[in-house]
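Archive transcription. Copying these from loose printouts into the bound notebook so they stop getting lost. Printout 1 of 2:
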Amino acid sequence: MDVITKFIKIQSKGENDIIDLTNHISGKIKESHISNGIVIVFVTGSTGALTTIEYEPGLLKDFPDMLSRIAPNNLNYEHEQMWHDGNGRSHVKASLIGPSITIPFNDENLLLGTWQQVIFIELDTRGRERNIVLQIMGN
């Protein structure tokens, strides 16, 4: 079994920016020349998250709206009391979604559903340059 590490750099616009990573990931798998296996996708940092979604306008609005109901802007967050950086809710949301996802692939193609895309969601209150780490494993 081979293991290859690849990186994707992205620039987010700020809170609730959702970026489709599917084609980036597919390209890195093809570069790796590993035909069958899994790819672990991981975002460094504690205010970004990864998941899958149907990348369409309704869900691009519904998903952040749902998160704002779970961790609203107007709550008191202890993180904010400690650091005064205004992103306590960002940490809570990112913890719920998580920093990584594992996806199988076959013949260098991600095994995703027809309407399923891999997304990064920026949860910090400001835009950031993000590093996405891929561990591509297989043969």
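Printout 2 of 2:
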Amino acid sequence: MKRFEERKSDLEKATNKLKEALQEEETDLTIDGVLHRFEFTFELAWKTMKDYLEYQGIVEKIGSPREVIKEAFSVGLIDNGQIWIQMMLSRNSLSHLYDEETSREIYDNIKESFVKEIEGLVQKLNK
């Protein structure tokens, strides 16, 4: 329970920092910062979901981010499993990304939908 509470708090802080970064003027440097903050926030999000599921006694078949996302969706912790899978794939591609067009597309997705999904998770975890 303690680890879950700490991660939940860290996730909330990381989400707020990501939202702050999205308010900045769109320069190459701020976009890079948003992408980096997204990677960190996504990592916290799926690990926090895993901790929550374990705390709820749901421990079977949840190890990888994909498994955690599927289980979190099935129990109603997240509303849009498909966007979370897209977020996971985007996060995975960022570590191998050298294409400005793709990074801009991911940035736009973060701004338009990903951050809202993470905020929704934080709200549910705080209930």
